[in-house]
Automatic annotation (TrEMBL):
It comes from the Bacteria. This is GNAT family N-acetyltransferase. Pfam families: Acetyltransf_1. Residues 12-57 form the N-acetyltransferase domain.
Length: 127
């Protein structure tokens, strides 16, 4: 987790990593993800030592058999909530897939710069 950031201006001590955001299907696309992330961002800022928030997304084709048919690319959500893709900054995670085998995955990092003002919970989307 730390090594990919050695080539960036960000010290790992100032990087807050979000491992997962996951809602059950009926709760998706109702604005809850944006609200949760705004609350988390506010808390992370209050801790005082973090300059950026990062998360990582798995790199695989849209038609990959492990993607569910209802999948919406997570890039949409990250774009809408102010994250930018850190091209070339990746790592590898291994986990068991629904086929029962362990696979090694390339994970692409995304970043949100906390030097920008915090969005307000009741404010409309910015783009
Ligand atoms: C990704 C996830 C947490 C987003 O939460 P959400 O409550 O569905 O998102 P919101 O309703 O707040 O939508 C915010 C924006 O993201 C986009 N979006 C909406 N649903 C989305 C979805 N299911 N996947 C990706 N992007 C989505 C929309 O463009 C929306 O922007 P808009 O309001 O300007 O139209 C949720 O959809 C989810 O659990 N998805 C499956 C799990 C997943 O992929 N997790 C991420 C891996 S870490």
């Amino acid at each position: 987790m730390r090594d990919p950031f050695k080539s960036t201006p960000y010290s790992p001590e100032n990087v807050y990593y979000i491992g997962e955001l996951l809602f059950r299907l009926p709760y998706r696309s109702r604005g809850l993800g944006r609200r949760l992330l705004t609350s988390m961002e506010s808390h992370i800022r209050s801790l005082g030592s973090f300059h950026v928030i990062v998360c990582a997304t798995v790199e695989r084709p849209l038609d990959h058999p492990c993607r569910r048919h209802e999948y919406i690319p997570i890039n949409n959500f990250l774009d809408r909530t102010g994250f930018v893709r850190l091209d070339g900054i990746t790592t590898h995670f291994t986990w068991m897939e629904i086929d029962g085998a362990r696979h090694n995955h390339t994970m692409q990092f995304w970043m949100k710069d906390l030097s920008q003002p915090c969005p307000q919970l009741n404010s409309p989307p910015q783009n």
